[in-house]
Specification:
This protein has about 210 residues and is an alpha/beta fold. The protein has one domain (about 1-210): TIM Barrel (Alpha-Beta Barrel), CATH 3.20.20. About 35% of the residues lie in helices and about 10% in strands. The chain is built from six helices and five strands; from the N terminus they run H-E-H-H-E-H-E-E-H-E-H. It has a five-stranded parallel sheet with strand order 1-2-3-4-5. Helix 1 (about 1-15) packs parallel to helix 3 (about 55-70) and helix 5 (about 150-165) packs across helix 6 (about 190-210). The longest helix is centred in the last third of the chain and has 22 residues, at about 190-210. The chain is globular and about 40 Å long. The N and C termini lie far apart (about 40 Å). The relative contact order is 0.12.
Amino acid sequence: MVRVLREELHYLLAAGVCLVQFDEPVLTEVVHGSSSTGGGRTFMCGALGEKRPVAEELAFAGDLLTGLFSGIPRERIALHVCRGNWTPDESAALAGDYRPLLDLLRRVPAGVLFLELSTPRAGDIEVLASLPEDMRVGVGVINQKEQRVETVDEVVAKAERAISLFGAERVLLNPDCGFATFADNPIVAAEIAEAKLSSITAAADLLRRRLRLS
């Protein structure tokens, strides 16, 4: 798997892609999923056929990610830590903050983390204050599962909280996860997804002007 993904990574970078994002759908299952040795089905593609002790699973994940990203400029690689995007029922998805993953996230050689932070299931953003200063943080500012479209002011408020913690140059804005988990049964309609992304765009433009960023 590492070899195949590295081939695709090199291909994308050679083609001129500026940032390649990898989705990590298992980490939250490891630390917040079922404690049974048989794994669980709490999260579609993140379900584990066999779940070993948490420390052992995280060490294995760290080795795989390090092998995948080794030798690649960190600023060209992003890692998304997913919490389950297969159902709009928030009570059925994984919940718990990023504290158990901090040691792993600090040492993974990725320059950007794209994290779910809009949903209350993700816990408080202050937990992430100790991330390396050379690591940018993609902050989830909208919940892609909700039918309601967040206002620009709501997005700005969430972004400003992240900026106060990490600094403006380190913060990126993103939806918590993707909108098209299933092509034939999306979480929200395309029109809602477009409106949510428009809120992010407008908020980013407003913040750039307010902070005088390029």
